[in-house]
Amino acid sequence: MSSTASASPRAQAWLWALATAAVVLLIDQLAKIAVRDSIALGETRSLLPGLVQLVDARNRGIAFGFLPGQQWLVTALIALALLVLLAYFARHSTRPFLWLATGMLLGGALGNVLDRIRAGSVTDFVKLPLGWPPFNLADAAITIGVFLLVLTIERRERA
Predict the structure, then answer these.
(1) Annotation marks residue 124 as catalytic
(2) Span 16-40, average pLDDT
(3) Active-site pick, 28, 56, 115, 139
């Protein structure tokens, strides 16, 4: 019998959330390293012509460059949001797929915080058309995580 099979549903949810966070963090950091090593700062490369470009951009704020240069404030806001998320997860960890939302949010947030600590800015590299600001895989994980969190809460409320 495996250790996860004998673990309580709550413990399994925590394990899945932490494993998801670790995978998101690893993939995000590897992608950022690849971009920093292969694309010059400010350079643009076409990945899917007319649809997706790769860039090496640095974001000193939070989403869409909001609060630039406010590293301590940004870090405090992220820490507060993560504490609220983890407190919520601790109380409701057995809800279906809440582990996935929590893991994606945690891994994405930690990926961007690690950039801020290491370099003072976040490496963004995916650029979509129509003036959309560049973003990274951590941002995508955070966005999907928020969507899943809302769906999980909404689904529970309707039930």
Answers:
(1) yes
(2) 96
(3) 139
Query: For 55, phi and psi rounded to 5 degrees?
Result: -135, 165
Angle at 68 between CA 55 and CA 143, to 5 degrees: 60
Residue spans per domain, the chain? 7-158
pLDDT over 60 (residue 3): no
Bridge partners of 19, per DSSP, are none
**47 alpha-carbon distance from chain centroid:** 22
Put simply, whether the predicted model's pTM sits higher than 0.85 gets the answer yes
Catalytic residue among 28, 56, 115, 124: 124
Q: Give the residue, 50 or 6, on which the prediction is more confident.
A: 50
Instruction: Please list the alpha-helical segments (H only) found in 39-97.
Output: 71-92
Task: Examine the residue annotation and report whether 37 is marked as an active-site residue of this protein.
Answer: no
Q: What is the spatial distance between Cα 54 and Cα 32, in angstroms, rounded to a whole number? A: 11
